[in-house]
Amino acid sequence: MGTLYLVATPIGNLEDITLRALRVLREVRLIAAEDTRHTRILLDHYQIATPCISYHEHNKLVRRDEILAALQTGDVALVSDAGTPAIADPGQELVQVCLAAGHTVIPIPGPSAPVAALVASGMATDRFAFIGFLPRRPRERRELLREIADLTLTIICFETPHRLLEALHDIAATLGARQLAVANDLTKRFEAIVRGTAAELVEHFTQHTPRGEFTIVIAGAVPSGERKRDRRRLRATAETVSPEAIAAYLRELVAQGVSGSTAVRRTAQELRVPKNAVYDVWQDIFGT
Fold first, then answer.
1. pLDDT in tens, 149-177
2. Which residue ranges form the domains of the chain, and what is each CATH number?
3. Degrees (nearest 5) of the Cα angle 213, 217, 223?
4. Fewer Cβ in 10 A, N or C end of the chain?
5. How does 211-229 read in b/e, with b if 16+ C-beta sit within 10 Å?
6. Residue 259 and residue 169: Cα distance in Å, rounded?
7. Res 235 pLDDT > 80
8. pTM
9. What single string gives the DSSP state of each residue in 197-223?
């Protein structure tokens, strides 16, 4: 009985592969790849001649029996286009089928976009959840965001470039001003991680057209007990921060070219005063 190896491959930089992964890819009888053309770039780079077949969402039922047959006489490696297979791809179904057939399944750890984005995000890493790609349809996306709104752990998800702005709008409307980190093309030449609230990131990506692959890290909700303490602290702080101090902070941000909505939001956050109090001062100064 052969073994199914789940081999993590680079998410961008071809150097991000382990020596063990290279050895396994050379030694197995067959490699099942999400896209053989994409995987062939990696195999050619490291001069690996192992036969390779496609295994993806559209042919998984046909390929399943072929892979099970190959496992009767040897080992098989499963790889995705990037990162760790069986996460947000049909590899999870193959794992279940192989286990049911009595085969051993062994992970070969390595690159993972969700983990890479998480550890660089600045968010809490002790408790987190990965929810895959956000739903394509706006209503379903908003329903999912409402479901996770009260979770206090960090949330990680994927999004495509053409839906990123819509997703950020929905996150802002559903989850409010909590912090996000949006990682773009991790480990590639133009890798970038942008941090801020969803509303701030909408402004950023309106000015910089989204391209490439995106991983979004969302800070967890503040526990209800802490929210109550924060509200009491805000009320106490509002009594000690003068309108003049708020006005000075607003004017400084405007002088830096910050938009009105962002200036009000940042002033409330930095001075820890209610947003409506800042808005009242804004109205007094600018009248809009």
1. 999 999 999 999 999 999 999 999 999 88
2. 3-111 (3.40.1010.10), 114-218 (3.30.950.10), 224-286 (no CATH)
3. 165
4. C
5. eebbbbbbbbbeeeeeeee
6. 17
7. no
8. 0.76
9. EHHHHHHHHHHS---S-EEEEEPPPPP
